[in-house]
UniProtKB/TrEMBL annotation:
Family under the similarity heading: Belongs to the peptidase M24B family.
UniProt-listed CDD domains: APP
UniProt xrefs under Gene3D superfamilies: Creatinase/methionine aminopeptidase superfamily, Creatinase/prolidase N-terminal domain
Record-annotated Peptidase M24 C-terminal domain positions: 555-615
Cited InterPro entries: Creatin/AminoP/Spt16_N, Creatinase/aminopeptidase-like, Creatinase_N, Pept_M24, Pept_M24B, Peptidase_M24_C, X-Pro_aminopeptidase_P
Keyword Membrane: no
Pfam annotation, one family: Peptidase_M24_C
Gene Ontology CC entries for this record: cytoplasm
Gene Ontology molecular function terms on file: metal ion binding; metalloaminopeptidase activity
Protein name: Xaa-Pro aminopeptidase
Annotated Peptidase M24 domain residues: 336-549
UniProt entry keywords in alphabetical sequence: Aminopeptidase, Hydrolase, Metal-binding, Protease
């Protein structure tokens, strides 16, 4: 039987445009590259080096030209740190990557350690001799993130010293830096002009007596100056820096080859444009005037701090002042985000209908599923990318929280297994992020129990009402309580911030024990509890929500759900839901049917009517 026979009303599976399935890691390359780095260390006269996952901008995604950790160790996750000496190589990753990291590196040479239980500083202090000199690239580490490692090492008599990066010296085939264009957004998409944003920023600066603020995060730069780019995968970022004085014209530092007559004209009068290579000299010049300079010690490179301090600046070390106003979406941004979720919901409904038709026949692979979902998103003319590499985990691969399917790992979906798909799109109107776990056949009672407990947690967050000033850390337990009742939990946060046609992961607010920033109206967050049984299956249900002022209780906040897509009713143990939870789910499904249904063809609309029927 051909795929056409199985899915007569849908096109054949197309090639992916936005995502590659190439196996990016090769453990056989770890040994020669470690040897080459160790030769460099000996020539530099140091005992070891720290290699973080980050680039100079501390982003979750880095250009291929800055993927040093992946080049050296093979590990391609979004967070990690390697330490290499003449005798040891350690790779520190968090709990999301404890399965992925050993599979991607050479474990005969590299010790993989989980930072949930093993902290880099104390571990290195124990394994390095007193008097050792450990190097670090001052452009790739921030003062805040390096501080606990520095403290542990100094207490053990080990010195941390800034050095040139030895990985760069051995990387002969290093890719070129990104050369993507700069797009200047209009007021109809941003809701606020750069001039207005600068005025608000300067009001904040004046309260702390700052003569200037230094911005190093691409999302802050893009939001403040209303620009977007294509410098990193799946995030519409322009990589650069900015210096904003309390008075006068800001300076925007971007690669000179990105600047055209058109974008120079669009930014004329808003910012002075200079090449990224001039940034360090500009910092020194700023500091020489004995200015009071604000920078974020958690996100700005150590080199920024040392240049400013050495040249005589008075340092103001506080959180990036753009992060909070960026997180509070204005009415235009929220309208765009709602539109993006609706467009995405149409694509996801088509995908889920296709999946239900195809999955029981047993010839789908994880890559097939990614390609088909992407193709439905690409049918929308305003879709410009996915918002991150799709997590497409069938059966046991669904238990790998941040699983990335490759040609090597690609697995067929066996009928009856659970299928977890976590994905998102970048539309001109906004950014989306959605996870659905689907049945491909009869589910076990245990699977239904766990799915329903995850759903109850997601509904609990969706229905939450809380006083202004409440942080995400205070409501995180609402999502976990039903799993805790049976001695289970999940090892990731319940929610993260989401940008407006920016990064799918943004701070400073979220829903997890680590998020202590109070939630405010306009913040868009994910709501994604889960459950994972290693080697068998994974479950996660995710909607995006926006914080809003409660209509009925002044001084209180609650959530509006943005995501519009059915939740698999076949996996619900209805007897575990109380009346309020059933009412919420039925109302949500009625809304999905009402808002998405009219945009579907007759066959898919019929599927949606069944998928959203009341329980």
């Amino acid at each position: 039987m051909t795929r056409k026979d199985i899915m007569p009303d849908y096109k054949a599976i197309p090639d992916a445009k936005y995502q590659s399935f190439e196996e990016k890691s090769d453990p056989t390359q770890v040994a020669p590259r470690l040897a080459a780095v160790r030769t460099q260390l000996a020539a530099m006269g140091i005992d070891g080096i720290l290699i973080p996952r980050t680039d100079v901008h501390q982003g979750e995604y880095v250009p291929d030209s800055d993927a040093r950790l992946a080049y050296l160790t093979g590990f391609t996750g979004s967070a990690g740190l390697a330490a290499v000496t003449a005798d040891i190589a350690a790779l520190f990753v968090d709990s999301r990557y404890t399965l992925q990291a050993p599979a991607q590196t050479d474990t005969a040479l590299v010790t993989v350690l989980d930072t949930t239980t093993v902290k880099p500083g104390p571990w290195l202090a124990e394994h390095l001799p007193a008097g050792a000199r450990l190097g670090f690239d001052p452009w790739l580490h921030t003062p805040g993130r390096l501080a606990p490692i520095r403290e542990a090492l100094e207490n053990a008599g080990i010195e941390l010293i800034p050095v040139e990066n030895p990985v760069d010296a051995i990387w002969d085939d290093r890719p070129d830096a990104p050369k993507g264009p700069i797009e200047v957004l209009g007021h109809n998409r941003t809701g606020k002009s750069t001039e207005a944003k600068l005025a608000e920023l300067r009001t904040t600066m004046s309260k702390d007596g700052a003569d200037a603020v230094v911005l190093t995060l691409p999302e802050s730069l893009c939001w403040l100056f209303n620009v977007r780019g294509r410098d990193v995968p799946h995030n519409p970022f322009v990589l650069g820096f900015a210096i904003v004085p309390a008075e006068g014209t800001p300076t925007l530092f971007v690669a000179d080859n990105k600047l055209t007559d058109e974008n120079r004209q669009a930014l004329e009068g808003i910012a002075e444009l200079r090449d990224k290579g001039e940034f360090e000299a500009a910092l020194a010049q700023l500091a020489a005037a004995e200015s009071s300079v604000w920078f974020d010690p958690e996100t700005a490179p150590i080199r920024v701090k040392s240049v400013l301090a050495d040249a005589g600046a008075r340092l103001i070390e506080k959180r990036d002042p753009v992060l909070l106003p960026k997180a509070r979406k204005n009415d235009v941004e929220l309208a765009g985000m709602r539109e993006a979720q609706k467009l995405d919901g149409i694509a996801v409904a088509k995908f889920l209908a296709w999946f239900d038709e195809a999955a029981p026949h047993g010839d789908l692979t994880e890559i097939d599923i990614v390609k088909m979902l992407e193709s439905f998103r690409r049918d929308e003319p305003t879709a410009v990318d996915i918002s991150f590499e799709t997590i497409s985990g069938s059966g046991p691969n669904g238990a790998i929280v941040h699983y990335r399917v490759s040609e090597k790992s690609n697995r067929g979906l066996n009928p009856g297994e659970l299928m977890l798909v976590d994905s998102g799109g970048q539309y001109l109107s906004g950014t989306t992020d959605i996870t659905r776990t689907m049945a491909s056949g009869p589910a076990t009672d245990e699977q239904k129990d766990r799915f329903t407990r995850v759903l109850k947690g997601m509904i609990a967050i969706s229905r939450a009402r809380f006083p202004a000033g409440t942080a995400g850390s205070q409501i995180d337990a609402l999502a976990r309580q039903f799993l805790w009742q049976i001695g289970k939990t999940y090892n990731h946060g319940t929610g993260h911030g989401v940008g407006a046609f920016l990064s799918v992961h943004e701070g400073p607010a979220g829903i997890a024990p680590s998020y202590t920033v109070p939630l405010e109206a306009g913040m868009v967050l994910s709501n994604e509890p889960g459950y994972y049984l290693e080697g068998q299956y994974g479950i996660r249900i995710e909607n995006l929500i926006v914080v809003q002022e409660s209509e009925d209780f002044p001084g209180y906040l609650d959530f509006e759900t943005l995501t519009l897509a059915p939740i698999d009713r076949r996996l619900i143990a209805v007897e575990l839901l109380d009346a309020a939870e059933r009412d919420w789910l039925n109302a949500y499904h009625a809304r999905v049917s009402r808002e998405i249904g009219p945009h579907l063809d007759t066959q898919t609309r019929g599927w949606l009517d069944q998928a959203t029927a009341p329980i």
